[in-house]
Amino acid sequence: MDHGGAWRTYFGYRYVEADAVLDAFTDSDFHLGGTDAKGFFVGGDFAFSPRVFARLKYFSANEIDGPPLGIDLWQLDINAQF
User: Fold this and answer.
1) Which residues fall within 8 angstroms of residue 67, CB to CB, at 6 or more apart?
2) How distant is the alpha carbon of residue 47 from its chain centre?
3) pTM over 0.70
4) In sequence order, what are the residues at sequence separation of 6 or more whose Cβ sits closer than 8 angstroms to the Cβ of residue 15?
């Protein structure tokens, strides 16, 4: 983000069947890693200045097979460059 006041948003959906990916290569944030999960993620970034920005993400994932397990995760990152 090159100037203060800049922003962006994003949204996505994931459907990862059991053993579709090696566990070492899965996203550790979505469903806390692993496979056999489906759900969505949404997020946004906002630049306070050219060197400081915040990122907020929300992940919602549910187990596809087996006992029901839903994991919701919020993340807030504040990044500064100096």
Assistant:
1) none
2) 19
3) yes
4) 38, 64
